[in-house]
Design a protein that fits this description.
By secondary structure, the protein is an alpha/beta fold. The protein folds into two domains: 29-58 and 316-461, Aspartate Aminotransferase, domain 1, CATH 3.90.1150.10; 66-313, 3-Layer(aba) Sandwich (Aspartate Aminotransferase, domain 2). The protein contains 16 helices and 16 strands. The strands form six sheets. Strands 2-8-7-6-5 form a five-stranded mixed beta sheet, sandwiched between helices. A three-stranded antiparallel beta sheet has the order 9-14-11. Helix 7 links the parallel strand 5 (183-186) and strand 6. Helix 2 (66-73) packs antiparallel against helix 11 (301-313) and helix 4 runs parallel beside helix 5. Bound molecules: ligand F0G.
């Protein structure tokens, strides 16, 4: 909140008022039971109309502001050189200080363009932890994606403030072994729990990379949340505005890829920004095949307008304080109910450690899936399993499965969508759930696809 408001107050009030409302679906317990059975116990197969609290993802699920909606009405839908493109370009340049800003329809298309332009078969591309789609795009180019998260993130209860950091010792070793086409720093580090990366870590990584002539790419999906954490936690930067912290962060980047569906507060969109003019030209040549002409990149003019406004709004510190405190409030409440959770709390989601919360269910009977089903059944809440269903490795010849390192359940908070009373209701329901955790059953998979099985798998309770 601004100085006049009490930042220590227990009640987190949303720093906005509501202008448009959307009724929540309120299916009965019987209707939910029917829906989850029809979905073969896979939450991705549920129709959204059967979900009351949809915490499946924070991606593309933001509520836009009155300013964003009114900017959409000014969208210029000209095929080439639309006014909306120049507004988008100015917003991205203003934020990142990077010359060439190219719109894409979402984050993964920016990653695909970067990979097509720079990655060759046999390359090894290191990162603090690649998001799934970044990894997939690197692997699709015949290279391998290497995760180098810092050791502190292995212990889910360690209070280390920057668990998203890259391990610099391991990075140096990789750089000595061969020359990668680039390194990816994902801020915040989604795959390890939405954990932030420190400015010191980015600066040190940049110095190392520069010595080896390797470009630094920032995956900026949640850059504003990361920069707010830096302001709150990194000595020396507590008095710097989040906007200035963001400018400093991007000053280290040779390129930025962004899924605007997160911290640009829009329902679709993304971009790639590069300093190198030659690379920008290569990308513009490649993108016409799949994304569209370089001044719209698969977006409507109105989408670029909303994106440009969102990039500005997300840096409002009263919004960011509310955002980060809401996640922390939800996480502390879940912990107080008796669940084991990943700490410190990240920027966009609470992660329940289902392996530790439901120790009677073995990893290969998917404790995270079991918890997701019960959360839906009992309170209409949709979460996502991030454990052995999603990340376990299966040998397709023998059917042998290796479990994931952790059995987590992610509850991602859409931006500006749910209020504190929604969270209080969920916490009340969760506290009635903890005494019966030991009764929850494991699951087995009855059908699955070869790739990304979690989206379409069918389950049966054991
Ligand atoms: N990078 C990060 C860090 C992400 O979290 C995502 C998407 C992407 C890139 C890809 O962006 O979806 O616009 O193509 N994350 C979503 C999630 C899907 O639920 O965490 P996209």
């Amino acid at each position: 909140m601004h100085a006049d408001f009490d930042p220590e107050a227990l009640t987190i009030f949303e720093p906005f008022r509501v202008k448009t409302v959307e009724p929540l679906p309120l299916p009965s317990r019987e209707e939910r039971e029917l829906a989850i059975r029809r979905a073969a116990f896979n939450l991705f197969a549920l129709p959204a109309a059967a979900v009351t609290f949809d915490f499946l993802t924070d991606s593309g699920t933001s509520a836009m502001s009155a300013r964003q909606w009114s900017a959409m009405m000014t969208g210029d839908e000209s095929y080439a050189g639309a006014k909306s493109f120049f507004r988008f370009e100015e917003a991205v340049r203003g934020l990142t200080g990077i010359e060439h800003a190219i719109p894409t329809h979402q984050g993964r298309s920016a990653e695909a363009l970067l990979a097509k332009a720079l990655v060759k078969p046999g390359h090894v591309v290191p990162g603090n932890t690649h998001f799934d789609t970044t990894r997939a795009n690197i692997e699709a180019a015949g290279a391998s994606a290497l995760d180098l998260p810092c050791d502190e993130n292995e212990d889910s209860s360690s209070p280390f403030p920057f668990k998203g950091n890259v391990d610099l010792v391991k990075l140096e070793k990789v750089l000595k072994d061969g020359k990668p086409p680039f390194f990816v720093m994902t801020v915040t580090n989604n795959s390890v729990g939405g954990q932030p990366v420190s400015m010191a870590n980015v600066a040190a990584a940049k110095a190392l990379l520069e010595r080896h002539g390797v470009p630094l790419v920032i995956d900026a999906a949640r850059f504003a949340e990361n920069c707010f954490f830096i302001q709150q936690r990194e000595p020396g930067l507590e008095k710097t505005s989040v906007k200035d912290i963001a400018a400093k962060l991007f000053s280290y980047a040779d390129a930025v890829v962004m899924s605007a569906k997160k911290d640009a507060l829009v329902n679709t969109g993304g971009f790639i920004a590069v300093r190198d003019g030659g690379l920008a030209e290569t990308i513009r040549h490649l993108m016409v095949l799949t994304e569209g002409f370089p001044t719209y990149g698969g977006l409507a003019g109105r989408d670029m307008e909303a994106l440009a406004v969102g990039l500005e709004e997300v840096l409002d510190e009263s919004y960011l304080r509310y955002r980060v405190r809401s996640v922390e409030y939800f996480g502390s409440g879940i912990e107080a109910c008796g669940f084991r959770v990943v700490k410190p709390f990240g920027g966009h989601a609470v992660y329940i450690d289902a392996g530790k919360s439901l120790p009677h269910i073995p990893a290969l009977q998917y404790p995270g899936q079991s918890l997701c089903v019960e959360l839906y059944r009992r309170m209409g809440l949709r979460a996502v399993e991030v454990g052995s269903v999603m990340l376990g490795r299966r040998d397709h010849e023998t059917g042998h499965e290796t479990p994931a390192p952790k059995e987590l359940v992610r509850l991602a908070l859409p931006r500006r969508v749910y209020t504190q009373s929604h969270i209080d209701y969920l916490l009340e329901k969760m506290s009635s759930l903890t005494p019966m955790l030991s009764e929850f059953k494991g699951y087995r998979i009855t059908r699955q696809s070869r790739y990304l099985r979690h989206f379409t798998a069918k389950f049966e309770p054991l």
